[in-house]
């Protein structure tokens, strides 16, 4: 079986600092993989490399066995990798449901110049997604006016509207209060299982990782230091030292 | 909300009746509608947050294309001049846009300015094609093969312009509500997200740029036959500035705004010429500042408020 | 060949000097305020009108003719102090933090107002005040005749370039300006009075524009429409050099002036187009100009 996503020997540097120093990683269909690691270890850079926002100096990325290295973000998006951002990226002057409908339209082809964006079938589909992510009550709120936690959910909804094969989530629970983290993750997991999405998420909270990830990948100085089941990896003294600081 | 279509229809009816009450207004309003088309083109780009300081060139391209076809080629029927002028300006928009829509903010404004100044200088220098600084004259065109007196043609032209205003306005309205049109505003608010949706900001903008050039071309063709004379000054950068001004004065949120701005300016101009011809730019400048400071949604925003429109979601603020 | 080319190039450099004054003013204002002032060209032509009027008055009043030299510089300073602080305090300050579209439109409104004010105050006639040029005379080197005034212009431009460099690098105010350019927020947090810096930079920009206009009057005179023509040329030069780059403006003004000369010599039809063709060519290859650097967005 080919891996859904496979990265091989990715290297990139910013001003002498190696943000990716020979990254090797593969993700199988249906997996839910967490990335952990200290700040500046290159976790977000890896997401940027997978989505074409940053081009690697060397190395390859494959989706379904086909190379997608250094393709433009929009081409990679069309091939089935969607992304939710650490700082939510929304169309702030559109409503939440319009954001989702725009993503639905983008998925079906944006070149529709006469049919309205706001049409019954898009609205129904967008509403169903918002329902799944518990945002239905905020469908008609301006995206820019939502509180941070809801903006993050809206950001994920927009990404899911693209019906991706692989969803990359950059710190889905950052900026969310400790009490809301688990309910938020429960909502996300339910939604992703319902849509059959494979996911890779960057996370700081170890409890979240242990609760929700099938597999955890530990990042350090631009490369993978360890990987495996959360319960096993967490026992590795090197991991404890690097990530937990113990 | 329901009041708005009624107001728009009433406005159009008023435009149609105005020349019956005051015949001298017909020419003024024809030119106003022509410039309104170009200002609408500028307004489309403003929705994407892009300010073009060179759009008068597409107005000029439309005008010159019409004049060239009529005089040099000798095909002088308005119903052929118009589509030809629109096609040529749309093509020019597509070619220029392909290079320029990669740029944003002040660089976009300045590159448009540079291209339009090249167009302006070429129009002044290429004597054999453009007639140099003398420009080109257009005789009164025929209409579907019918030869008309100047007065009859001008009247027909005015009503054709109004029909175009209604039809093209409706089409542009549909475009702005469509996914492609909504993506235009999305370029402005979050280009990164748009690209991550798999949408190319470049092609979204290029579509808008081409449409905006075609709109300017419609205006140029109408103005060319209405005035009967095409000059390089049509493409000068201050004309482009006036188009942006017209759009903002009227309001860029809807279709009607740029036309309201254009008609308002031309009417005031007609009045001001008698009393304060030397202070015309001054008046317009002060009016522009007043609108920017006090009426960010333009004159049409006033009309909308009067009609009880309060829902401004999905609109681009300047 | 050389006999004809050298005077042409001196001519070009003298032109470059005049373009440099306006363009560097535009670019300086942009680097500090991050605003492209569309009315900048009008301040050039106002400087020209004031200088020409003062020059003519000095001659008409029978005052010593040499007074026309200091009068050029003083006219520019007068224009700068009259318009700089007032415009920055009112219109420009209101646009800080607003979109580029608003900034361009507000300064375009100002441009329209200033254009008509000039017509009202100075009329629509062309004005020539060439006393300074006549006074300096000509010199002949190696069989080639030069206008001394043009040589003086080139010298003044070099002096202004060096002076600006020294001002920004050495003086206290200059260093504060440089800090605001480098990082506005941090400068503010460190207690730099950014509002004062904006006013200084804007007034300095007006001074440079007005100086360009004043220095141009003896050679070209001044007529309505000068502001609009100068504006686009200054845009082109500032963009070629890279918006906000002082040295860039200097290099770009020479490039543009030389391109114009070459056009006059080899393709006369293209002389007016030359600056814009250069601008297009440069910006298509380097969107932020020869000396500029773009910013990347973090996500």
Automatic annotation (TrEMBL), chain A:
Which keywords does the record carry?
Answer: ATP-binding, Nucleotide-binding, Transport
Q: Name one GO molecular function term.
A: ATP hydrolysis activity
Report the protein name in the record: Amino acid/amide ABC transporter ATP-binding protein 1, HAAT family
Q: Which SUPFAM superfamilies match?
A: P-loop containing nucleoside triphosphate hydrolases
Q: Which Pfam families match?
A: ABC_tran
GO CC annotations, alphabetized: plasma membrane
Coiled-coil stretches are none
ABC transporter domain boundaries:
5-246
TrEMBL record, chain B:
**CDD domains from the entry?**
TM_PBP1_LivM_like (cd06581)
**Which keywords accompany this UniProt record?**
Cell membrane, Membrane, Transmembrane, Transmembrane helix
- Reply yes or no: does the keyword Ribonucleoprotein apply: no
The record's InterPro entries line, in alphabetical order, gives:
ABC_transp_permease, LivM-like
Q: Which organism is it from?
A: Albimonas pacifica
Q: Example GO molecular function term?
A: branched-chain amino acid transmembrane transporter activity
Pfam families the record matches: BPD_transp_2 (PF02653)
Q: What is this protein called?
A: Amino acid/amide ABC transporter membrane protein 2, HAAT family
Q: How does it sit in the membrane?
A: Multi-pass membrane protein
Q: Where in the cell is it found?
A: Cell membrane
Transmembrane ranges, per UniProt, are: 37-66, 78-99, 105-123, 156-176, 206-231, 243-265, 271-295
Identify the GO cellular component terms for this protein. plasma membrane
From TrEMBL, chain C:
Q: Could you list the residue ranges that cross the membrane?
A: 12-36, 43-63, 69-92, 104-129, 149-168, 197-216, 273-291
Gene Ontology MF term list: transmembrane transporter activity
Key words of the record:
Amino-acid transport, Cell membrane, Membrane, Transmembrane, Transmembrane helix, Transport
Which positions make up the signal peptide? none
The superkingdom listed in its UniProt entry is Bacteria
UniProt-annotated location(s) = Cell membrane
Q: Its GO CC terms?
A: plasma membrane
| InterPro entries tied to this protein | ABC_transp_permease, BCAA_transport_permease
What CDD domains does the database record attribute to this sequence?
TM_PBP1_LivH_like
Q: A GO biological process this protein is involved in?
A: amino acid transport
UniProt record similarity statement: Belongs to the binding-protein-dependent transport system permease family. LivHM subfamily.
This chain's protein is named Amino acid/amide ABC transporter membrane protein 1, HAAT family
Q: Which species does this protein come from?
A: Albimonas pacifica
Q: What is the lineage of its organism?
A: Bacteria, Pseudomonadati, Pseudomonadota, Alphaproteobacteria, Rhodobacterales
């Amino acid at each position: 079986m080919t891996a859904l996503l496979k990265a091989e020997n990715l290297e990139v540097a910013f001003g002498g600092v190696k943000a990716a120093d020979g990254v090797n990683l593969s993700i199988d269909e249906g997996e839910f993989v967490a990335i952990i690691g200290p700040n500046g270890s290159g976790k977000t850079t890896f997401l940027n490399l997978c989505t074409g926002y940053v081009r690697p100096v060397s190395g390859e990325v494959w989706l379904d066995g086909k190379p997608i290295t250094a393709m433009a973000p929009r081409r990679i998006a069309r091939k089935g990798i969607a992304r939710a951002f650490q700082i939510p990226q929304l169309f702030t002057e559109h409503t939440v449901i319009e954001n989702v409908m725009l993503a639905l339209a983008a998925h079906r082809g944006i070149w529709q110049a006469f049919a309205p964006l706001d049409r019954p079938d898009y609205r129904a589909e967008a509403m169903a997604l918002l329902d799944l992510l518990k945002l239905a009550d905020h469908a008609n709120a301006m995206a820019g006016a939502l509180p941070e936690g809801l903006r993050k959910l809206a950001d994920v909804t927009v990404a899911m509207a693209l019906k991706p094969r692989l969803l990359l989530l950059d710190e889905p629970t950052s900026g969310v209060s400790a009490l809301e983290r688990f309910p938020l993750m429960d909502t996300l997991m339910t939604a992703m299982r319902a849509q059959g999405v494979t996911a890779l998420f960057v996370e700081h909270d170890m409890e979240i990782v242990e609760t929700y990830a099938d597999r955890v990948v530990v990042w350090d100085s631009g490369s993978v230091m360890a990987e495996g089941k959360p319960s096993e990896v967490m026992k590795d003294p090197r991991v404890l030292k690097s990530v937990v600081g113990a | 909300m329901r009041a708005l279509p009624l107001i728009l229809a009433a406005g159009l009816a008023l435009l149609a009746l105005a020349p019956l009450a005051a015949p001298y207004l017909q020419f003024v309003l024809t030119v106003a509608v022509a410039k309104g088309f170009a200002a609408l083109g500028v307004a489309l780009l403003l929705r994407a947050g892009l300010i073009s300081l060179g759009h008068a060139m597409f107005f000029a391209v439309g005008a010159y294309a019409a004049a060239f076809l009529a005089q040099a080629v000798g095909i002088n029927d308005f119903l052929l001049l118009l589509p030809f002028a629109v096609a040529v300006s749309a093509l020019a928009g597509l070619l220029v846009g392909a290079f320029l829509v990669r740029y944003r903010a002040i660089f976009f404004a300045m590159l448009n300015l540079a291209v339009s100044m090249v167009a302006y200088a070429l129009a002044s220098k290429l004597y054999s094609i453009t007639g140099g600084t003398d420009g080109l004259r257009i005789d009164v065109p025929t209409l579907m093969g019918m030869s008309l007196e100047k007065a009859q043609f001008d009247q027909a032209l005015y009503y054709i312009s109004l029909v175009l205003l209604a039809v093209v306005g409706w089409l542009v309205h549909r475009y702005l509500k469509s996914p492609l049109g909504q993506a235009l505003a999305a370029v402005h608010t979050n280009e990164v997200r748009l690209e991550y949706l798999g949408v190319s900001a470049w092609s979204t903008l290029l579509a808008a740029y081409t449409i905006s050039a075609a709109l300017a071309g419609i205006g140029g063709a109408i103005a060319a036959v209405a005035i009967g004379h095409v000059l390089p000054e049509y493409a000068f950068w201050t004309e482009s500035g006036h188009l942006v001004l017209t759009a903002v004065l009227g309001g860029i949120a809807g279709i009607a705004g740029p036309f309201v701005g254009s008609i308002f300016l031309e009417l005031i101009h007609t009045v001001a010429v008698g009393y304060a011809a030397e202070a015309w730019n001054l008046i317009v400048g002060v009016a522009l500042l007043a609108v920017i400071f006090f009426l960010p949604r333009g004159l049409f925003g006033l009309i909308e408020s009067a009609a009880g429109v309060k829902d401004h979601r999905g609109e681009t603020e300047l | 060949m050389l006999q004809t080319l050298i005077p042409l190039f001196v001519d070009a450099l003298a032109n470059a000097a005049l373009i440099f004054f306006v363009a560097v003013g535009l670019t300086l204002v942009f680097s500090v305020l991050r605003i492209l002032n569309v009315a900048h060209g009008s301040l050039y032509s106002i400087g020209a009108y004031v200088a020409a009027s003062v020059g003519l008055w000095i001659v008409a009043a029978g005052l010593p003719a040499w007074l026309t030299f200091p009068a050029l510089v003083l006219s520019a300073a007068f224009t700068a102090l009259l318009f700089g602080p007032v415009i920055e305090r009112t219109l420009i300050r209101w646009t800080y933090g607003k979109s580029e579209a608003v900034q361009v439109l507000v300064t375009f409104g100002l441009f329209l107002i200033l254009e008509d004010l000039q017509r009202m105050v100075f009329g629509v006639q062309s004005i020539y005040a060439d006393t300074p040029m006549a006074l300096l005379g000509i010199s002949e080197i190696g069989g080639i005749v030069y206008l001394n005034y043009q040589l003086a212009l080139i010298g003044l431009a070099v002096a202004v370039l060096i002076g600006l460099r020294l001002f920004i690098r050495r003086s206290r105010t200059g260093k504060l300006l440089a800090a605001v350019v480098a990082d506005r927020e941090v400068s503010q947090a460190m207690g730099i009075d950014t509002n004062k810096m904006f006013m200084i930079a804007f007034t300095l920009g007006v001074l440079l524009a007005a100086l360009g206009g004043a220095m141009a009057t003896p050679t070209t005179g001044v007529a309505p429409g000068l502001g609009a023509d100068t504006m686009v040329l200054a845009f082109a030069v500032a963009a070629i050099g890279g918006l906000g780059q002082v040295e860039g403006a200097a290099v770009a003004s020479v490039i543009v002036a030389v391109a114009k000369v070459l056009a006059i010599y080899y393709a006369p039809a293209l002389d007016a187009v030359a600056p814009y063709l250069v601008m297009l060519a440069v910006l298509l290859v380097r969107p932020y100009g020869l000396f500029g650097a773009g910013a990347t967005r973090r996500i």
